[in-house]
Amino acid sequence: MKYFFDYALAERYGYGMAVFIAAETSDLQRAIDATNARRMRAGRSLLEDAQVADILSVLRKKGYLAATMDDDANLSGSGASATG
């Protein structure tokens, strides 16, 4: 399991939104892990891990976040450390 919360997210978007972003990214990663387990058994190539930047992009498209943020390149790899 990966841990996606990062204090840089909290500083940038506020604590509540940072928790939401981390939870959404974690949900996406769980789905990717389940899909990869099936793909591995079938001998197919695996999907890439979830990235916080992917979730930020979706939240912008849905209107939850402002359309442009200059510092998001610094957050694209935030979190994503293995915890268990």
Written account of the structure:
- By secondary structure, the protein is mostly helical.
- It has helices at residues 7-13, 15-41, 52-61, and strands at residues 2-3, 81-82.
- The chain has a two-stranded antiparallel sheet.
- Helix 1 (7-13) packs across helix 2 (15-41) and helix 2 crosses helix 3.
- The longest helix has 27 residues, at 15-41.
- It is elongated, with a radius of gyration of 14 Å.
- The mean pLDDT is 84.
Strand-residue fraction?
Answer: under 5%
Mean pLDDT: 84
How do the strands of the widest beta sheet line up side by side? 1-2
> Helix-strand pattern, N to C?
EHHHE
Structural class, from secondary structure content?
mainly alpha
What is the subunit organization of this protein? single chain
> How big is the Rg?
14 Å
Work out the number of β strands: 2
Report on the biggest sheet. 2 strands, antiparallel
Distance between the termini: 6 Å
Write the layout of secondary structure elements.
Layout: E1 2-3, H1 7-13, H2 15-41, H3 52-61, E2 81-82
Antiparallel strand pairs: 1-2
Helix pairs in contact: 1-2, 2-3
Summarize the structure.
The chain has 84 residues and is mainly alpha-helical. It is built from 3 helices and 2 strands.
Q: What distinguishing features does this structure have?
A:
single chain, 84 residues, mainly alpha, two-stranded antiparallel sheet, 3 helices, 2 strands, 52% helix, elongated
